[in-house]
Write a structure and sequence with these properties.
By secondary structure, the chain is an alpha/beta fold. The protein is built from 7 helices and 15 strands. Strands 1-3-5-8-11-14-15 form a 7-stranded mixed beta sheet. It is globular, with a radius of gyration of 19 Å. The two termini are 23 Å apart.
Length: 215
């Protein structure tokens, strides 16, 4: 059985032959100028929207200076929201009120400085209802627990949960994490990934290192 191409909008086919409209490969589902998504990253929703970018990142506007970058093979559950830097207000003055929004002057003194990009690595699982705050940097292989509120840097292969989100543990030891980042299976041809699905799922690092030498 072949894997659906990365430009497939609805990659899940139900038993009756119809596409499951609540699950999309995100890359072909969006056209947002400030949002970059890697191949095979998918998002699911019980009430699929017409505009997936607006559902996921409602404060990321065409004129926003920041970007939202999401890697390959990420898994984004229902209700996840990326609160990007354009949602920020100034808080160092006498008022946090954004007067510039209503005058159309996005560089007015009441508006905050441009915020950082939000960067999500590869093979990141973001659980139901999680919120990712402006400028978060989430490493490869991270698992974000349902309902977590995540800010700042999350190291690769960490499990982060809670509000505020905190790292509960690492999924592997430091040596294996370094090896997995070097293996970078998400950059392999999809045929090689499917052929080595069991080794990936079972974290057979020795086997994956052997396969990596072929690329």
């Amino acid at each position: 059985m072949s894997f659906p191409p990365p430009d497939t909008l609805h990659p899940v086919v139900l038993s009756d032959g119809h596409a499951h409209r609540g699950t999309v490969f995100l890359k072909p589902a969006i056209t947002h100028a400030r949002m970059d998504v890697g191949d095979y990253t998918y998002v699911s929703a019980f009430d699929p929207p017409d505009d997936w970018a607006a559902r996921l990142a409602p404060y990321l506007f065409d004129f926003s200076p920041e970007r939202l970058v999401i890697g390959k093979f990420c898994q984004i559950a229902d209700g996840v929201m990326f609160i990007t830097a354009s949602a920020n207000h100034r808080y160092d003055g006498a008022s946090s009120y954004p007067f510039g929004i209503f005058t159309g002057q996005h560089d007015s003194p009441s508006m905050p400085d441009a915020g950082p990009d939000t960067i999500i690595g590869n093979d990141v699982w973001i659980g139901q209802g999680a919120k990712i705050l402006p400028g978060a940097r989430i490493g490869n292989g991270v698992i974000v627990g349902a309902g977590a509120v995540v800010a700042g840097y999350v190291p690769p292969y960490a499990i982060v949960a809670g509000n505020p989100g905190s790292v509960r543990r690492l999924r592997f030891d430091a040596d294996d994490i370094a090896k997995l980042n070097a293996i970078a299976w998400w950059d392999w041809p999809i045929e090689a990934i499917i052929q080595n699905e069991a080794s990936i799922a079972q974290a057979d690092i020795a086997r994956l290192l052997a396969v990596t030498t072929a690329f």
